[in-house]
Amino acid sequence: MTTGSQTEAVELGTALAPAVRLRGATLAYGERPLWSGLDLDVAPGEFVAVLGPNGSGKTSLLRVLLGLQQLNSGTVEIGGEPARRGSNRIGYIPQQRALDANVTVRGRDLVGMGLDGHHWGMGIKGRKHRKERVDAALEAVEATAYARQPLGLLSGGEQQRLRVAQALVGEPAVLLCDEPLLSLDISHQRKVSRLIADRARGSGAGVLFVTHEINPVLPMVDKVLYLVDGRFRLGTPDEVMNSATLSELYRTDVEVARVGGRLVVAGGDSQDHHVSEADEA
Ligand SMILES: Nc1ncnc2c1ncn2[C@@H]1O[C@H](COP(=O)(O)OP(=O)(O)OP(=O)(O)O)[C@@H](O)[C@H]1O
């Protein structure tokens, strides 16, 4: 397990550049660091869950990787190159905001935007290839039936499945997901998280998956990055999601139990990982 004080690089045993690499990364707004001395490698095909209470800096980490936020110190690379704004190597599922009812863009056009910057050529062949890719992405999230309707008229969960398709359609090297399961029913939570994990393994994309609820993705998670009040722990789910480690992070007693393959966390600010009603169903 890597702790906030350790600065040693993680050896991946792969010749490929990591999908994501942070070294000695520190981010602070004003005096208070959100995290400091963060060393993180996400290998191609690896699935990393990012957890922590509200305001611990999870979304800010994604903004750093998107090139939208500068580090105070340290370095950040995407596929071996410095992170930069507008990189088409990154697929991004932003934290969900409900769209206004009068948004008239259609779902399939939103998904097509995920292919902008890809050069299929202007001819019939290029257009056909583009259409096939959009159709396949819509099919994968089971959104074909409503893909021609205006976005503003769709439910929150339907809109979210289209955002997932948009992020996946360009076959990115890095997939950044900011609470992508919000407003999805339990069946689509499972399908969408399985889809993201399978795409990651299949195409070699590295995934950073911000979530308050680890249970729907627990079987797919390779590593957990847990942020709390300027401290962090990075390791396998077993290394991080245990009573000793979380008690140390929260600086108060936290109990972690495994119940039927799920994690139940009690104490700290850990309403995050209680088994939700949907999970128990
Ligand atoms: N541009 C900014 N300038 C100043 N403070 C900011 C800025 N962006 C975020 N913050 C603050 O940094 C902290 C971390 O925010 P961030 O959105 O990264 O947290 P989070 O872990 O994603 O939280 P949540 O779980 O609530 O989504 C918050 O206290 C937030 O108010």
TrEMBL record:
GO molecular function, one term: ATP binding
SMART domains the record matches: AAA
Similarity comment text for this entry: Belongs to the ABC transporter superfamily.
Designated name of the protein: Metal ABC transporter ATP-binding protein
One Pfam family of this chain: ABC_tran
SUPFAM superfamilies: P-loop containing nucleoside triphosphate hydrolases (SSF52540)
Keywords: ATP-binding, Nucleotide-binding, Transport
PROSITE patterns the UniProt entry points to: ABC_TRANSPORTER_1, ABC_TRANSPORTER_2
PANTHER family attached to this UniProt entry: METAL TRANSPORT SYSTEM ATP-BINDING PROTEIN TM_0124-RELATED
Domain ABC transporter, first and last residues per copy: 20-254
Superkingdom as given in the UniProt entry: Bacteria
